[in-house]
Design brief:
Distance between the termini: 22 Å
Radius of gyration: 20 Å
Strand content: 15-25%
Largest sheet: 8 strands, parallel, barrel
Number of strands: 12
């Protein structure tokens, strides 16, 4: 089911709590970064952003290892924005505690909580919490299976190899709606797409490189799987990085040094080649970097929404050490200019021919 009303589309933002630098160019303390993330969430609520998600990491270049706690602070200071994890690394967490934490956030926020489950693109949490990487597949599959049982908010009877069994166990607190909105985040493997459909959870695609249209087969696979598995229709979302400034030139100029630093470090860790400006430009112009003026970014988001037929788009607005003040301005532009313009562009595409 594609968007039939541009106002039905959710347009959110995402951050990993990247460690940013202060006016002196030095990294800010983790505490200040976390407080800044809370302020970014409050601003997003004020300027009309639909959702904010915060990712979980356990490494020195990201300040947020406990997104649920940061989200609780944002929930207490906001009124309308949806708040969620992006992602919760379920493989190294306890599914029951995940449900309990986010059902509590759902209560504090008056029903605005989301959980996005995923494997995570980093593995630091495995040794930190005593899990073996060779159990990577089993851990995620069993824990997602247990979470799905807990998510029903009915007594749970479950048995697996990763923890003690449960017998007719009720989990509290339950939610007022009876349905804590839960997504499964995937990087693009067909097996992961079908797994999300099997549980009837909405699908969040992490598209961080290359043209977005290459993910169209995964959207089609997901909806086909839902039908074959006799699951109800569910939305599909996309998470991609980007940055907004007054002009295209300013946005590229401000983002590139932070982009080079962050992806250069990750690339060295993973054995990739050096991060080049040519690659950066390619991603901005033809790939999945949503960078530029409000008009440029709005047009690119609208094109992705139309091409893939998605119902949610989250912009990862933080990149490496890019300063908090610049991130605040990007959020302001996103909420006040990009989001309304995306809706205008989509509304124009939805007008029937001859109208």
């Amino acid at each position: 089911m594609a968007i039939t009303d541009a106002n039905d589309l959710e347009l959110g933002i995402d951050t990993f709590g990247d460690v940013t630098v202060g006016p002196d160019g030095q990294p800010l303390p983790y505490g200040q970064v976390i407080r800044n993330v809370v302020e970014e969430g409050v601003l997003a609520d004020q300027v009309g952003v639909d959702a904010i998600t915060i990712g979980e990491h356990h490494r020195d270049d990201f300040a947020v290892s406990a997104p649920d706690i940061v989200l609780t602070a944002i929930a207490a200071r906001t009124e309308r924005i949806r708040i969620g994890s992006g992602v919760t690394v379920l493989s190294s967490d306890d599914p029951i505690r995940v449900f309990q934490r986010f059902s509590t956030i759902d209560a504090i926020s008056n029903g605005r909580a989301d959980v996005i489950m995923g494997r995570g693109s980093f593995t630091e949490s495995f040794p930190l919490f005593g899990y073996a990487l060779q159990d990577y597949q089993t851990l995620f599959e069993e824990k997602l299976n247990l979470y799905a049982e807990v998510h029903t908010e009915q007594p749970v009877t479950w048995q697996g190899s990763t923890r003690a069994p449960l017998q007719n166990q009720k989990v509290y607190p339950t939610t007022e709606s009876g349905n804590l909105r839960t997504w499964v985040g995937v990087g693009g493997s067909p097996e992961s797409v079908v797994r999300a459909a099997n549980y009837g959870f909405p699908l969040m695609l992490a598209i961080i490189g290359g043209p977005a249209e290459r993910f169209a087969p995964f959207v089609e696979l997901y909806h086909r799987a839902l039908t074959q598995l006799e699951q109800p229709w569910q939305p599909v979302g996309v998470h991609s990085p980007g940055y907004i400034a007054e002009t295209d030139e300013q946005a590229r100029e401000e983002l590139w040094p932070a982009y080079e630093q962050m992806f250069g470090r990750i690339g060295r860790e993973r054995g990739w080649g050096p991060t080049t400006y040519a690659h950066f430009e390619q991603e901005v112009e033809h790939g999945s970097l949503y960078v530029g003026s409000p008009e440029t970014v709005a047009r690119k988001i609208a094109a992705t929404v139309s091409t893939l037929g998605i119902q949610r788009f989250d912009l990862k607005y933080s990149t490496g050490p890019l300063q908090h003040e610049k991130l605040m301005r990007a959020i302001e532009l996103y909420g006040t200019q990009v989001i309304p313009r995306v809706r205008e562009l989509l509304a124009e595409r939805l007008v029937p021919t001859g109208a």
